[in-house]
Amino acid sequence: MKRCSSNTYHYFFKNLANPLKINIISILKNQECSVNDLVKDLKEEQSKVSHALISLKACSIVNAKKIGKNKIYSLNKKIITPILNIIDKHKCRYCKKLK
Q1: How much of the chain is in helix, strand and coil states, percent to nearest 5?
Q2: What does the alpha-carbon distance between residue 37 and residue 44 come to, in Å, rounded to a whole number?
Q3: Residue of 45, 44, 64, 65 whose CA lies nearest to 54
Q4: For a Cys-Cys bond, which of 37, 55, 61, 78 suits 33, CB 3.0-4.6 Å?
């Protein structure tokens, strides 16, 4: 298995530490969305949401497919859902002081 540099870990976890990106991930856990759908749900500027999606896509946290003139985003459930489940289990077991 190829070893990753600490910069790779930093970039990946930086995506998971950003509130806007976490909100996007939370929405995409349940449904596929266009940028416009995400902007409406998140009440954020389109440019901020698009920028966040570019970063998430660069780490394969989200996938994008083109349908007509729109890009439809979905969570990379094969990789990200297991990671989120591990984080949830860890939080429940070791981070008891967090709400």
Answers
A1: 60, 15, 30
A2: 11
A3: 64
A4: 37
Q: What is the CATH number of the domain that holds 52?
A: 1.10.10.10
What does pTM read for this prediction?
0.85
Per-residue pLDDT tens over the stretch 58-67: 999 999 999 9
Question: Running DSSP on this structure, what letter comes out for residue 69?
Answer: T
pLDDT computed for residue 94 by the predictor: 85
Under-50 pLDDT residues of the chain: none
Work out how many domains the chain is built from and give that number. 1
In this structure, what token pair is assigned to residue 60?
């394969």
Instruction: Give the torsion through C-alpha atoms of 36, 41, 46, 48, to 10 deg.
Output: -140
With a pLDDT cut of 90, the percent of the chain lying above it is: 70
Contact between residue 76 and residue 35 where contact means Cβ atoms under 8 Å apart: no
Within a domain: residue 1? Answer: no
Q: Write out the two tokens for 6.
A: 């600490």
